Amino acid sequence: MSKETGPEGPVPEGPVAPAPASPTRLTREAAEQARTVGRTTVRGQRAGASHDTRAASVVTRRDLEERLPRSAPDALRFEPGVYVQQTAHGQGSPYVRGLTGQQTVMMFDGIRLNNSTFRYGPNQYFFTIDSRTLQKLEVLRGAASTRYGSDAMGGALLATPIDPALEVGGQRNWYGHSKAMMRSGTADGEMGGRAQLDLGWKGKVGLFGGVGYRDVGLLRAGGKVLSPTTGQPVKSPLFAADGVTQRGTGFREFTADARLVYKISDKHRLTLGYYDYRQFDAPRTDRCPPVTAPQTECLWYDEQFRTLVYGAYDVSDGPAAAERVRWTVSYQHQHERRRYDRGAESTYRIIGRDEVYSLGTGLNISTKNFGLARGVSLRVDYGLDAYFDTLRSYAWNTFLDVGITTPTTSQYANGSRYLTSGVWTEAKLNLYDRVELRAGGRGSLVVARAPGNLDAMVGRRPIDQNWGGAVGGGGVAVRLLDGVRWITNLDQGFRAPNLDDLTSRQATGAGQQYENPNLRPERALTLETGLKIERPRVELQLFAFQSWIDRLITRVRFDRDQCPPEDNICGAAVYNVTLANIAGTSHIRGFDGAVRLFLPRGFGMRATAAYTWGDGPNPVPDLDPVRVPLSRIPPLNGTVEINWRHRAGFFASSALRWARPQTRLTETDKNDQRIPLGGTPGFAVLDVRAGYRLQPYALVVLVLENVTNAAYRYHGSSINGPGRGLNVLIEVGF
């Protein structure tokens, strides 16, 4: 497998060792085969997923460079089964098979990013990964808790960072490559750049790192957003007087990273990594202002920081029981500071700050391929992981007219602690290069502790919960023909309630969300079956799936008489909600797939499509209908890309993203007519791209976004989308 797409660990971006001066001359037949399998400069290398017998896809470094995504979530828009929601211009939350936020797990170089404050529904945390530092992104669709533990109910997002090149050969012991890049966009006034350096010594020590900055202004949208049920303009987002500029957009961002790799020997390697993301002054568009509030109200994320420091020790070609070993030790700090301006007529503002400190470790071991009999081989992967969070949470009111600050109830219980851990194993049995069987299991332990505050104004009950359990999964892949496989998988997923579920108090719409210390873990079972084709001229994957989710956690209303006795905010809210397990089983079903064609003369085409439907027990007992559609399920959606690449380095493409309008229905009215409850507006956004690549010295990319200037809205309550504008990337290397 090529170095770029290797499944194990990070891969280098920089140049590789120079080719021999007199390469072997290929025969005509061999040259034609090389062209058709996509390994020429025009086609680029094919990217293989590390989870080869699952529904999975990969975003390569070339994809990231040529598509010019604004963020890591934005980079996933063209992957099958993935739908990206943005509640603010500086946030993004990928949906994988209808689930997002707490119900999908995010990994960075094998290290878990999910912590105990990930919110119910969409959240902004995948946005804190700088896409400019990534070599590839892999999306694993379907339950994956055997391998990745709690939260992996909808799937897993696996980010692989760029490694130092570790060049060998040449006359000098030292090498160095630098790169400077500048990016600008007219739709939101974006201006930013990055400088990075790749240093190395004798192919044994390498350092890759850089710093980046960008300033993003107000977004000029493609037009008014119309409600799918009324046909009238929606009240959120709020537009300026010109009718196209969206209020509540814009942010500033600073990033820094450094990655040191030391090859102790051919079998041993040590990696030290540092990744820092800092975002400033990012308003949340749907609450700037909220629909029912004065137009001057706004919720700001003044500071959104995430720092990751870790070490990784890799061993290859070890003993039979541990041929490959990877051990990681990590420290993460997530910092969030929010400011809620109550409007021009208000005399006070609400400020909150949360700090999450996470210590983690993971051990992954793979045995060698044991030959059990002729044509029969077995490999076993196994390991353990543990992540421990400590939480600090504060909130205060500032009275602007008198300059007095007073403490108030924090979003979380200050001093809370949370542990998620487990041991796992997975075996793969290969039979005569025709059938591959996979089976595995995990045992988990999750511990949640939170101090109580029984003051009448607060009324928080202490948390002392332990959850243990086991999940498993397996599958079979049958090779029907060369390059054609039929795959079926049955996997379990689970999600233990985290500190956000158990202790959080936060605004939601016109009401307040309150904690529930009695929640139980969600459990999922996913069955998928489908076809994978990898032929010289075509790649295809098409999967149908069904998920059963027990004890799904969702929001339910509670009466004001359940409020803490002296909590005036709770008593004055339009409505109050809490999180609760729904009795019974919820269903999510659908299909997703992608097809890619390799056409003559450097042309290619790729298309994706996904449809998801979900329903579950009515969270309000004894109310018709008995089963209702699940919230936030994306509509039928897909993408189409047509591209062209030339050996001289020129490339061009057009890309279409679309979604069908979707209206959710409730019970029938007195005239037996179905009543629309809400839905998702459809959209069709066309981008045109062109560029030139002179490897490794220069890269120029131009993207004309939203050519048709269409009105646009993301799924659910998300409101931001591309305006019509030109994005430009200029990259120069030395």
From TrEMBL:
Domain TonB-dependent receptor-like beta-barrel: 313-696
Chief place of localization: membrane
Low complexity compositional bias, start-end: 33-48
Stretches for region Disordered: 1-73
Record keywords: Cell outer membrane, Membrane, Receptor, Signal, TonB box, Transmembrane, Transmembrane beta strand, Transport
Keyword match Membrane: yes
Protein localization: Cell outer membrane
Comp. bias (Basic and acidic residues): 49-69
Ranges of biased composition (kind: Pro residues): 9-21
Membrane protein topology class: Multi-pass membrane protein
Domain TonB-dependent receptor plug: from-to ranges: 54-156
Keyword Membrane (UniProt): yes
Family: Belongs to the TonB-dependent receptor family.
PANTHER family: HEMOGLOBIN AND HEMOGLOBIN-HAPTOGLOBIN-BINDING PROTEIN 1-RELATED, TONB-DEPENDENT OUTER MEMBRANE RECEPTOR
Protein name in the entry: TonB-dependent receptor
UniProt source species: Nannocystis pusilla
